[in-house]
Amino acid sequence: MSGKTKNINKSDDKAADKKAQTHLGPSIIFQYFKFIIQKPQLIAFAIWSVLFTTGFFVFLYCYPNPLTFYESRGYVDAAIANAWDFYRPFGYSKFLILIHDYSNSPVAVYIAQFIIFMFSSLFFISSIKFLYQPKRKVLFYTLMGILFFNPGIFFLSNSIMSDSLFSSLSLIWFTSTLFLLYRFNWFVAIINIIIIYFIVNLRFAGIVYPFLALATLFYKEKINIKSLAYAVFALLITYSTYNTNVTKHYKTFGIKIFAAFSGWQIANNAMHMIPYVDLDSNSINEEDLRTVHRFVKAYPDSSYIKTINDNGITALFMWDNNLPLKKCMFYVGNNKYNTYKRAWVNMGPVYNRYGQMLIKRFPMAYLQHYYLPNAYSIINCDPLFFRHHPAIEFNPVWFNSPEGKLQPPKYDFFENGLASQFRAINLTHWLLLLIGIILLAVNFKKVEIQLKYYKTTLIFFIIFIGFNFLFLSYASPIEMRFLYIFYP
User: Fold this and answer.
1) 375 and 381 Cβ atoms separated by less than 8 Å
2) N or C: which terminus of the chain has fewer CB atoms within 10 Å of its end residue's CB?
3) What is the sign, positive or negative, of the torsion defined by CA atoms of 160, 166, 167, 172?
4) What is the pLDDT of residues 53-86, one digit of tens each?
């Protein structure tokens, strides 16, 4: 009897595998397009589109102009000059140029970013439904609703910052990678690689994306010609972007580096532990680092503590002209470099070495006073991003604004109620997402999908979320806008 049961079970497993193979067919893209034009999917698209569009117009009425920050000015100035900005990648300024070719209204930026966000969201939702075939539709749509109807997404789309575009393209890349992990398809692979190119040129953090996908792809199956070809093309795109940026720095500033910004950021992060460590300048071998440390120690511990107490984990140490990193740059720049830009870029590698030295010598202090508090802020983040900042002055012609400034909101519902509750909302959001994911995971037997693919995509999800969590905690002080890579 048990032998017959085993045979029946094996037969059932083969039938399930065959059904899954038939579901996705030899051409996964063809099957996907057939799926999304079916009536239930078209109805779902219509409902989602109405919800998204309603949210769009309500938000546009309250905030007729995009939110702006000091970085916004840099992006716009680079777009006006059509020239590379040494602080950040040029990709977002290119995007602004493209939008400006059609309209110089600031609303056009919001419309374009929101359309891309809506497309990426619908692509993700329909793909998850297609690939996983969830039977608990109520749970599925509830989870998707929680995921995509966070008010912060509307703020993000209506801002002159690269974060919305980066998050939307990251979601498209993530979703296309799910297709690749099920069955390799050259059309999907090409789209995936093109998206990688755009992502890396928006934010350098995207340079690791190909490695995350390859780690999962090579786990899933033995190395073959297709996966190797994908690896070669993806890495070529990544290397090309890296090499282009190094070349630009060398031609402009005479120094071969990928990004000076990262060195400033690492030193900024290390400043958070300065009041709690004791390092004699004479114990530092490199003269440049000794010079930096003398400036750092010239400031009393109380000034560091006050800066941190007033601002939390902060990026002020790399931007405030009255704090030691900028003071040291001005001193060195007056002696060695003839322009602010050249001094700022050339100090990047020095600050990188200085920050790394502090972290290696005092790893526990770094963990206690910077890394762990910064990691905690992922779930307890100050919603500073959503506050309406003082209007940034722009070229009046660029945004068709006679005053050269974008006007404040008609009704700031964030300051009029949402601000005081936002941390609770953010924490609730994370908890609901976690509960939803667990509920879907424990019910995977009720999902028509092969077990091997389910495990592979779960591993990819863990790698993606885990890496971004660890990287964000290390790379820079957490701001709410950085977290929307998870929302999408």
Assistant:
1) no
2) N
3) positive
4) 888 888 888 888 787 777 888 888 889 888 888 7
